[in-house]
Amino acid sequence: MKQKPNLDNLGLGDLVQEMHRIFAEDTNVVKPENLIPEESIDNYQTYMTIINEINRRYRWIKSIGSYSDKELKPLKFLNIKDFNSAIELCWGDPDLEGMPWNSDGTILHVPEGGIKYLKNKGLKFKVIEFHYGRKLEIKKNDKK
Predict the structure, then answer these.
(1) Disulfide engineering: 83 pairs with which of 20, 53, 74, 77, CB 3.0-4.6 Å?
(2) Residue ranges covered by each domain of the chain
(3) Mean pLDDT computed over every residue of the chain
């Protein structure tokens, strides 16, 4: 069995180049998994590892302005500690790498897909309704 390549230090161009190299060696890697010949399994697994790495790193649209109002979610944190932790995660967590975000110092705006990552980190926040005419309103069911 071949050793899987270390993808940590490869940029997008290098990852794509590695995918092309594998495909040039073995076109079986793009067949449905149940049709891949046994001698191509290692190449297939490496190929899929690269695709998964690209999806992990580059799943976000790069510009926050490219998201619609419906896709962009403003988060109101229940305490400053969780707000600060969220900002730190946006800067350095591998799961959020490349996710665009914006903050006015009290509200964190993230793509809808980022919410589950922040929740999984145990942060306490509410998704609020935000009218981009600069008016901020908390949904009625969020008021205490």
Answers:
(1) 77
(2) 12-57, 64-142
(3) 81
